[in-house]
Amino acid sequence: MSSTILRRACRKPYTILSRYQSISTLFQSPSIPKPQNHVSGFEFQSNNASGWFSSVSNKRLTFSCGSSLNNTLSFSTQAAVVPSTADGLTVDGIVANQWTILDESESDWKSHASAIAQSIRLIKKRLQWEKLKVRLEMLSIHMEKPDLWDDPVNAGRISREYGSLVGKMKTVNSLEQELIEHIDMIKLAHEEDDPELESESVKALLRMRQSVKEKELEALLAGEHDLCSCYIEVQAGAGGTESMDWAGMVMQMYKMWAQRHGYGVTVVDEMRGEIAGIKRATLRVDGEYAYGYAKAEVGAHRLVRISPFDSAKRRHTSFAAVAVTPILGDGSHHVQISESDLRIERYRSGGAGGQHANVTDSAVRITHIPTGITAACQNERSQHQNKASAMAVLQSRLDQREMARQAQMNAQYTQSLTDNSWGNQIRSYVLHPYRMVKDLRTNFEVSDPDSVLEGEIDDFILSFLTDSMDKENEA
Amino acid sequence: MNLSSLARASSLSTSLASRTLHRSIARRPISCFYSPPSINPKTPLFLRPPIFTATLSDLQKWQNWAKTLASSVGSSFTDSDNGPDSEILHRELNWLVQDALENPNPLFHMESKFETVMKLRVDLGDLYTLWKQRIETRRPFQYVVGCEHWRDLVLSVEEGVLIPRPETELIVDLVYDVVNKNVDLMGGLWVDLGTGSGAIAIGIGRVLGDGGRVIATDLSPVAVQVASFNVKRYNLQDKISVKQGSWFDPLTEFEGRVAGLVSNPPYIPSGHISGLQAEVGRHEPILALDGGEDGMSDLLHLCNGAALMLKSGGFFAFETNGEDQCRLFVDHMESVHKNSFYDLKIVPDFAGIQRFVTGIRL
């Protein structure tokens, strides 16, 4: 009887989860304890942990209910914490089985499951799973304190971090849950001799294998501001035209990289070199994780080549410095800018102005007097917009400065801060006498500088991010 | 002395007399240097339908040609009359592309295919003509694309209408600060004299409260048409009315009832007109630029009018040529209209030039 119900339910275009839920309700008896009682196994569980704990465990509960159709309805606290299949297989168990991972095109569920389990394990590692659990526990203690909101700024920060960690934990838990559900479904279909359902479930597993790859990458970008858009600022080092030309090439590299990723790219501020290239420029890169990736580019970039600007054809070494600042959303700024601290100037203006001049150039520079930090914009078509744009750059720089100051007070971050300082040489681009681009932090290298200069820098970025994550984990 | 006689005195005697003195051709009627007054203002390029097509490779040919032309200018315009240099012209070229194309992205991406068909808002041949006009006849970029980005607005402009200047944006900020401190002014009647494209009027219209109204006046029928078009485009026709006439002429019924008075009147001394940057001197309406022998005739006229028109507590802000005019203006107010105004201030623009005079009617 059960298989008929199952089949009927399965023909409806529902998700696997909802199928199970619909079935499980049939079997639910008053004797099933309320799910809330079952989540107490979470060591970091707190009373005010909002909805998701119970909703996740709820799914789990209904699932185990459905999956144990042919068995007795048994529940244990343990089962609610670590998801496992009807026959007791867990995600860690799958990893331990070391099933061979075949190409995606091979329709073998064990291969898919193994690949997914590996990915989940990597994601957990990247999220620093154990540390994350401890941190979450600590935050939930803070969240429970009755005087939490006496300091609204601090409370806001705590509840934001709490929400973000809970979100990460939820994502991973539901990945594990989903994997287990798929496997159960496949096994069930196999037992019930339903090839249609079985192949459908294997396909679902394959889709999961593909989507979980993206999550691996996202886990690498788990920093507080990684999701933000950002500014990339490039400045030519000493050495005149040759280094200005180099700065221009670096800028171009980032433009093309950003376009490849489908990011919005705007040159906010650009000061061209007299003969070639740029003295400095600020690029605004709009899109998800722009900051998370681009932050790997902070530092000095070195070029070695025969300079086209040297009539004696000598080999030159030049530098371009790259800075990256996140564009924080409204309400999460670290610095409140006071209008009276600002000096706003029209720059590159000359003559009487006003009705005397027809200008399409309305460049504006803003100086934050207390810090001396400046920001400029001349890309917009009105002065008003240039001013707004320069203000946004200034805000981002002041936020960055404040975050750096706070991080310095927080010993935990001191290491990464010194690594990422503006003056550190991070990468070498050699065009002569041999051709190679080498990252000095990771030793990752590529022998085709042209492709790198055309924006193919993802491998450099990923190797750096993975590398620095490993270092953090070791620390 | 009543208002209309003031207006006539100013517009006929000083400015016209000096204009004929300094120009070989008397520019009358003022409204039509390049085309007869149009019933409908020209549609800005970016608002026209994309009904033309060209292949990407043909467009790139045009773009390369246009770039070469822009580069050939170097700093020659800057050296001769403080005009734009190549870098600025290159930026304008990018903006022209943005306005003329429905989707300009393929032009800026290396991977695009040459045979891609691009949709244009103007015929490719006309693009050649437009850029040639920009470089060879120094036609202002804003007339080429038919619009000026001003504050957060995009305003239609065409020959016969002064292109609003970046400095003038600040008048709206000045008004914003004042009305946010004074509810009475926020809901009052504001007047923009010599509105041109309607820029200040629209800027103010957007910072006033629900009860606030703006009357914008201009002598030029083209300006009135263009300003009305812009007002409608921002859906402010219920708040802003545009009237044709000289300075205070269309406003006699509001004497003593005006909450705020703003203007960017002609203030260039007649003697400077012949040496102006080519984009300005050869293309923009002289009516909006020439302020008489010392550039002060219209400003002083406005000063006298402000005493009559403003209600007690009413605010004015006028743009001037710079420090000298600001001083003269304040001196005039303090001597001729003694005890009529208080809180007289001179406000600099972002380039540090003393640009605006503001004050409050006693």
Characteristic key phrases:
heterodimer, A: 475 residues, alpha+beta, Methane Monooxygenase Hydroxylase, Chain G, domain 1, Alpha-Beta Plaits, 2 domains, 15 helices, globular, disordered N terminus, B: 362 residues, alpha/beta, Rossmann fold, 7-stranded mixed β-sheet, 14 helices, elongated
What's a quick, concise take on this entry?
The complex is a heterodimer of chains A (475) and B (362). Chain A has 475 residues and is α+β, with helices and mostly antiparallel strands.
Secondary-structure blueprint of this entry?
The complex is a heterodimer of chains A (475) and B (362).
Chain A: H1 2-11, H2 16-27, H3 52-67, H4 77-81, H5 91-97, H6 109-126, H7 129-144, H8 152-191, H9 195-220, E1 229-236, H10 240-260, E2 264-272, E3 278-286, H11 290-294, E4 299-306, E5 315-327, E6 342-346, E7 364-368, E8 373-377, H12 383-409, H13 411-419, E9 425-430, E10 436-439, E11 445-446, H14 449-453, H15 458-474
Parallel strand pairs in A: 4-9
Antiparallel strand pairs in A: 1-3, 1-5, 2-3, 4-5, 6-7, 7-8, 9-10, 10-11
Chain B: H1 3-22, E1 52-55, H2 56-73, H3 76-81, H4 86-100, H5 105-108, E2 117-120, H6 124-136, H7 141-145, E3 147-150, E4 153-156, H8 169-179, H9 183-186, E5 189-193, H10 199-205, E6 213-218, H11 221-233, E7 240-244, E8 258-263, H12 278-281, H13 297-309, E9 310-319, H14 323-336, E10 341-348, E11 354-361
Parallel strand pairs in B: 5-6, 5-8, 6-7, 8-9
Antiparallel strand pairs in B: 1-2, 3-4, 9-11, 10-11
Characterise the protein shown here.
The complex is a heterodimer of chains A (475) and B (362). Chain A has helices at 2-11, 16-27, 52-67, 77-81, 91-97, 109-126, 129-144, 152-191, 195-220, 240-260, 290-294, 383-409, 411-419, 449-453, 458-474; strands spanning 229-236, 264-272, 278-286, 299-306, 315-327, 342-346, 364-368, 373-377, 425-430, 436-439, 445-446. Chain A is of the alpha+beta class and 475 residues long. In chain A, the strands form two sheets. Chain A has an eight-stranded mixed sheet. A three-stranded antiparallel sheet of chain A has the order 6-7-8. The N and C termini of chain A lie far apart (57 Å). Chain B has helices at residues 3-22, 56-73, 76-81, 86-100, 105-108, 124-136, 141-145, 169-179, 183-186, 199-205, 221-233, 278-281, 297-309, 323-336, and strands spanning 52-55, 117-120, 147-150, 153-156, 189-193, 213-218, 240-244, 258-263, 310-319, 341-348, 354-361. In chain B, helix 11 links the parallel strand 6 and strand 7. The longest helix of chain B has 20 residues, at 3-22. Residues 1-38 of chain B have low confidence and may be disordered. The A-B interface holds A 256, 259, 272, 344-346, 349-362, 364, 379-385, 454 and B 82, 84, 87-88, 91-92, 95, 109-110, 140-142, 148-153, 162-163, 165-167, 169, 264, 266-268, 272, 276-277, 279-280, 283-284, 288-289, 319-322, 349-353, 355. Chain B: GO terms for molecular function: nucleic acid binding; protein methyltransferase activity. Chain B: Keywords: Methyltransferase, S-adenosyl-L-methionine, Transferase. Chain B: It holds the Pfam family PrmA.
